[in-house]
Amino acid sequence: MGEGHDGAAKELRARLEARGDEVRIIDFLDAAPFGIGRFVRWSYELQLRIAPWTYELTYRLWYLLPFLWGPMVAFDSWLPRRSLQRDIEDLHPDAVVSTYCLSSLVLGRMRKKGWLRVPVVTYLTDFAVHPLWVHPSVDLHVAVSSWAAKAAEERSRGGETRAPGPLVSSRFTGTLPDRAASRVALGLGPGERAVLVVAGSWGVGDVVSTVRAIARSGRYHPITACGHDEKLKHALDELGVGVVLGWTSEMPALMAACDAVVENAGGLTCMESFAAGLPVVTYHPIPGHGRENARYMADAGVTQYAHDESELFTALDELTTPGEARDQQIAMGKSLFAGDVSADVCEVADRGAAQRELIPFRLPRTPRVARRVAAAAVLVYGSLTVGAQAVAALGVGIARPPRNSLGQSYVGVRIDANELADPAVTQRLAAMHVTAIVDGQTAKASPESVRHLAATGVDIGNGGWGHGRRLRWDRAQADVARTGDLLRSHAGVRVHEFAPERRLDAFDQAWSHRRGQRLVLADHVFRPERVGEVQASKVYVLDGRGRSPAALEAGLAHLEGRMQGAGVTSAPLADLR
Questions:
Q1: How far is CA 134 from the centre of its chain?
Q2: Whose C-alpha in 225, 320, 345, 535 is 20 to 30 A from the C-alpha of 113?
């Protein structure tokens, strides 16, 4: 599931074999039947490339709904049980080590049930410790940092944890290739500051804009490693800036030649940079673990987290120039390498050397299978509905105010056909620079009024179809796609915001993403007769439907007065990001 997990396993194998131990690596995803593992790997990469917001949603789900952890572990254990059991029986190990979260859950459950009588060790590859990384029945969790070890101890309810540091090849911890020769090979001049841009073995993330920004500054020479992503390499070749490389095994030479690394995930290359003594900046991190790693690594002082171009250039200026800031960050990165994971694994293996007994999985009877299938169905449905609502409440996948919006509030006004036809209302909407939220029924009844309102410069938002549907998927399709198509065909308006009056779910997020409509979730909804206090950088919806045009106009005037009193101006929902 990425070079970070595989690379850690290969390095641990090399260290254990150097001690004289026998080691076998098993790909956990290959243990699942019917090609499910390949599908999981494919869908994960697809999420990161096409719809990264969906990965952020699923990543956060386990924090918001921790009670789903148990059914997930049971379901995850049921799928690969036969293949995993056969592999372990063939080897008769003294210990089993996992470098991947889902395999850790399965092995932990095997220990809990008594099916596995040898110790299990989980190696945590990231600074961020997700709930699915830790099982309380795992004998030992070893981590890349003391911060990750502490988080694992809390999640395992006091289980044994250690922080020996990252599993990195001696090619990075030892003497690097000659810097001068490496720079000449890359065509770098003596005074050029070279920045190595990496995005893992898959090349995911907003790499092109990162390289473009670094090159546009004129202060640094980007060296980009695209991994296995040939499309990314082709795009950067066409851009024609810096040095662009595909998959390479010469990372030590690249690090010797460069002055800093810019990365987006906190993965294996990041750990290798710490070992090589190269300062790291995180920029445009990928969703989920990428963003969490960025925060935790920056808090630990081993990286800098640049949130925009200005912060990126400030960090690179500081870290590519000899001085205290650069030296301190490099020292913090090197301090992570406090021990040897292989020594910890051998110590645990010695405890279980006399207990090589493996009790097979008990095959579930038909009623148990039915219950598990039903539980899985409930889990999936809950993730797509209640889970998505909870995650949306935290702002995941939702349009947000820009960072520089301290003097503005963002306003949408729900209107019906009667109010849409009133000139005083339309003039007030245009003067206030707000969004008119129109549902499908209103647009169908008054297409010319919608067209006229858009012609005056008023932003038009999608308010949904206007009445509900029983099936969630059908409801989302009607609200997002059908209403958007109707506004476009009948009124000539192309909408870019979807502001439903109901709770959101994953079906809304899927259809909105598919149709290019930003999801808008209001901080407060007012009625014309009850307009409350307002604040800057908040989203407000004034629902005027069912009121007279005069009442809506009075409510708009009241809202405008509230904003003037708060020292803010109104802006349309189109200005959200």
A1: 19
A2: 345
